[in-house]
Here is the input.
Amino acid sequence: MRVLVIGSGGREHAICYSFARSERVEKIYCAPGNGGIASIAECVPIKPEEIDKLIEFAERESIDLTFVGGETALALGIVDEFEKRDLRVIGASMSAARLEASKAFAKDFMARHGIPTAKYLTADSPSAAIGVLESGHFGDETSPVVVKADGLAAGKGVVVARDRQEAVSACEELASLVGDAADTIVLEEYLDGREVSLLMFVDGNDFILMPPVRDHKRIGEGDTGPNTGGMGTITDSGLLTPAQTQQVIEEMIEPTLAGCIADGFPFRGILFLGLMLTHGGAKLLEYNVRFGDPETQAILVRLESDLVGICEAMLDGTLGNTLIKWRDGNSACVVLAAEGYPQKPRIGDVIDGLDDAASIDDVTIFHAGTAVSEEGAFVTSGGRVLGITATGDELAEALTKAYEAAAIISWKGMQYRRDIGT
Ligand code: AMP
Here is the structure.
């Protein structure tokens, strides 16, 4: 098979890596890819938003299967366009992608289908949102409240405000941070608890869960400092008890898939639930309609089944008869980031130690932001540079190996969190 993966981050490297392990895959292309991906796939200089060019490429190169990594192309309707031309593609349709592309749409969907989530109100301007806050709808001046830009904002559209003053400031500032994405603002009740993410393969009717995963979003140890795209992840079956998993299936997953069918957009692709485990049970914070980054890296190193077969089952509607095998134990992904990330990452630094780090047993290095210099060396080319990913029979073992590998790698100003998984 000839496979095309769309995207350029660590997530897409992990997806290419899984396809590269399949005996059925003869050739992998990645558009646009990155320096590290180029070692297992042919990188094609087409951006995810350039849907016409991607279609032309897929037709010209007789691509058998396309896998869309990120949300931007999905929200633009890439899957619908590929399907119109009978090109086999994995990802959510444009209608289904609204579950991620509009937080107001997602919250209304959850309310309509009785899915447990934080109480919310939608406002169509910052001043209307401030009016709602001042009316006391979300408690008094001292109450925490969450302010969210409706649209896609690459992780920058959510402010967890500690009190009303912070919430009002967030309403005033969101537009300058994320532009049009803040034309509509969602205000939400603050939920206290532990977060966990649950991803699944979905074929429209049936789903197969992946191992539960936890990410660390803040740049600093102890969850301090600004939010990032994600500084590390772990997979651990203990993140959700069997009873919690059952609650999530019955109260969230089944109603979501049935709701998508009832509302006219059966969900096919990767569904990602961001959950908050509160004293009152699990609540759904958000949907993503694709793999997370860096969740994917920690998840896919544990996938033992052939990703091609899983994709075919999603496309053919046969997930219900499919078994997926995962490596037992745990995994961890530690992100190595550039100096200045997330505000202003410096790029172009030469990366040392990659080969030695990769030679450690059970360690896989996924490239997120690297390029190859004229001299043939790997250099940094983005804020998040590498995802050092390891498996182990226990979480501690996976973390030890990932950190052992991280310690061998260096470039000027490299930064990472030493507390992933704790
Ligand atoms: P979202 O993109 O909606 O998942 O929000 C990003 C992050 O903001 C989440 O991962 C949580 O850490 C936090 N967050 C979102 N909504 C809430 C909420 N209602 N209560 C507490 N924290 C929240």
Remarks:
- The pocket of adenosine monophosphate is lined by residues 118, 146, 148, 158, 160, 188-191, 195, 274, 285-286 (CB under 6 Å).
- The two ends are 41 Å apart (CA to CA).
- The CA atoms of residues 23 and 242 lie 34 Å apart.
